[in-house]
Amino acid sequence: MMPKLKTLISVALMFACALVVSSCATPAGVRKINPRAAYQDTVANPLNDAVLSDDTKVVLDRFDLYRKFKSSPAAAIADLHAKALCDGRRDILYALAEISYLYGEDLHESFLPGSRKAAPDYFLLSAVYAYIYILGDMREPPPAAYDHRFRTACDLYNFSLWRSLSNGNGGRLVLPEGPRALPVGNLFITLNKSQLPSAVTDFDELLPSYKYAVRGFIVRNRTPGMGLPLIGLKKNTKDAFMAVQAIPVTAFLRMEGGLPELTAGTATASLELFSAYDDAEVSVNNHVIPLQTDTTTPTAYILEHESLIWDYGMKAFLGKLAAAPNKLYLMQPYQPGRIPVVFVHGTMSSPVWWTEMWNTLRADPELRRTYQFWFFMYNSNALVSLSAADLRDSLRKEIALLDPDKKDPALEQMVVVGHSQGGLLANLTAVSTGDRLLRSLTDKDIDSLDISDEQKALLRRALIVEPLPFVKRVVYISTPHRGSFRSSLWIRKIAQKIISLPSNIVTFPLNAYSFLKDDVKNMFGDRIPVTSLDSMSPGNPVMKELANIPLAQGVKGNSIIAVKNPEDPKEQWNDGVVEYSSAHLDGLESEFIVHSGHSCQGHPLTIEEVRRILIEHAVSAGAIPNP
Question: Which of 342, 366, 472 is nearest to 413 (CA)?
Answer without folding.
Answer: 472
